[in-house]
Each structure stands twice: as C-alpha cells, then as structure tokens.
Amino acid sequence: MGITGDVVNNYFLTTGYYVGGGSNTLNISGTLTNNDTFYVYGSGDVANVKLTLQFYSHAVSQDRMAAAGEMLIAILSHAADQSGLKAD
User: Fold this and answer.
1) Which residues contact 62 (CB under 8 A, 6 or more apart)?
2) Number of structural domains found in the chain
3) Contact by Cβ (8 Å): 51, 32
4) Measuring CA to CA, which residue among 59, 13, 62, 61 is closest to residue 33?
C-alpha cells in the first residue's frame, strides 16, 4: 500500500493485524505522526515512513512515560542494523 504525503494516525494503523499473512509493505512518502497505535505486525512486513516521535511527549503518567522510553530505546538500538533508520 502506498500513501502520498503526510499521515496522522489517531487510532490504529497496522500491517496485517486483522487479515494475517505477512510480507506486506506500507510506504508513506511523507511524515507519519503517530498519536496512538502503529504496528508492523506480520512476518516479513515492512513500513517505509518518516516517523515523528512527538507522541512520546504526550504521555503524562509515570507508567506511560516509562513505556515510551523503553520503546524509544528499542527503536534506536536497532538503528545501526536497519538500512535507512536513523535518529535525527
């Protein structure tokens, strides 16, 4: 699936969650601003996006801030292993 331009996700954006399978590709030419849930779900699924992490600043409870921090560490820890993934 290809989306031209920017995308704002306010609910649930996923590859293959409801229909199963794998090897799905999501291409977003602009920036993805994620305000809720974004999964690259199936085996072999790929998402090509420019992702903003602004939603992390909106988590106000301690448990949400901790979870957001863990997610950010997990994303950035694999940056060197993934072609094109980098922290700006």
Assistant:
1) none
2) 1
3) yes
4) 13
- Here the tokens at position 30 are 């602009």
Q: Is residue 86 part of a domain?
A: no
* Distance, CA of 5 to chain centre: 16
HSE of 12, CA atoms in CB hemisphere, 13 A: 5
Q: How many CB atoms lie within 10 A of CB 49?
A: 19
Per-residue pLDDT of the chain (88 residues; tens, 9 = 90+): 888 888 898 998 888 777 767 888 888 888 888 888 888 888 888 888 865 555 544 545 777 777 777 777 777 666 555 555 555 4
